[in-house]
Amino acid sequence: MTVKEYNRAVEEFADSVYRFIRGNLKDDERANDIVQDSYERLWRHVAEIEYTVVKSWLFSTAYHIMIDIIRKEKRMTNLELIHEKEMIHESQYNDLNEILHKALDHLPEQQKSSVMLRDYEGYSYKEIGEITGLNEAQVKINIYRGRVALKNFIGKIETVL
Fold first, then answer.
1. What fold does the segment set 1-77 form as a domain?
2. Percentage helix, strand, coil, to 5, in the chain?
């Protein structure tokens, strides 16, 4: 890949990689860091990677960086989050977007990523498999189970409104 192609990759794909990571982590700063790390790794391998596969390579790299961060954070105990959960009380919401994001946060990470890549970003099952390192059957199962869990969490739309 040439420097010109690298710059074109930054212009074309940085926003969608950021949206994907931001949608999973809900943290602007960490999402920016992951996108930057992904492009840094791309720069280190710029001579080895063809431009035709750079989009899936970036998504895959960003996804794996994100998973590493999540795994690292799970090992650490955060007492503030435990106290926050105790203080949250259930109330009626009218914001559908907020309800959907709350439902997405309850999904296991692989289901959440698969659903977001499919429904938010429009990737095919094969592309999602390449990004996440799963086979197509596992991707389909994750998407199906994620959608069922979302449906069960949200319930009937009439009860939400």
1. Rna Polymerase Sigma Factor; Chain: A (1.10.1740)
2. 80, 0, 20
Please answer whether residues 61 and 38 qualify as being in contact, where contact means their C-beta atoms are separated by less than 8 angstroms.
yes
pTM value is 0.54
State the greatest distance between any 2 C-alpha atoms of the chain, in Å, as a whole number.
Answer: 55
| Residue-wise pLDDT tens digits, 35-53 | 999 999 998 888 888 888 8
Topology annotation, domain 89-161: Arc Repressor Mutant, subunit A (1.10.10)
Residue 31: other Cβ atoms inside 10 A:
21
128 with 139: CB under 8 angstroms?
yes
Q: In this structure, are residues 18 and 58 in contact, taking their beta carbons and an 8 Å threshold?
A: no
Q: Which two tokens stand for residue 113?
A: 């990523």
